[in-house]
Amino acid sequence: MCETDYSGYPDCRDDTIKAMQVALTLGMDRRFVLHTPLMWIDKAESWALTERLGGAVLVDILLEETHTCYIGDRTTRHSWGYGCGACPACQLRATGYERYRTGEGT
Q1: C-alpha torsion sign, points 86, 82, 68, 3
Q2: N or C: which end of the chain has fewer CB within 10 A?
Q3: DSSP string, the chain
Q4: Contact between 59 and 51 (Cβ < 8 Å)
Q5: Can you tell me the distance from the alpha carbon of 63 to that of 88, in angstroms, rounded to the nearest whole number?
């Protein structure tokens, strides 16, 4: 999840994650740390990071095995992966993937 280009859902914000971390720490009486390494990078940068970490093979795995579609559409495969193509999450993923492909997200 990232706050940089999220589509408005409050659970994607850094403040929400920090609040959950505090609640878990208090409730379990031990320190919890929630790591969000993608929080401050956008979708294009996330795709570029994927390629740097695992090459084209990892990019292909993410395209085939993940989605961000809010309605969960796994019937339609786009160049950027599965999704309805119309919801805010799909639009962000499509835009980020296109920016990555054209070199804007590196």
Answers
A1: negative
A2: C
A3: --STT--S-GGGSHHHHHHHHHHHHHHHTS------TTTTS-HHHHHHHHHHHHHHHHHHHHHHH-B--TT---S-EETTEES-SSSHHHHHHHHHHHHHHTTTT-
A4: yes
A5: 18
Which whole-number Å values give the CA distances from 29 to 18, 19, 32, in the listed order? 16, 15, 9
User: How far apart are the C-alpha atoms of 14 and 103, rounded to whole Å?
Assistant: 27
Q: How far apart are CA 9 and CA 1, in angstroms?
A: 11
Express each pLDDT in 53-86 by its tens digit.
Answer: 999 999 999 999 998 899 999 999 999 999 999 9
State the Cα–Cα distance between residues 99 and 14, nearest whole angstrom: 24
Whole-number pLDDT of residue 7: 73
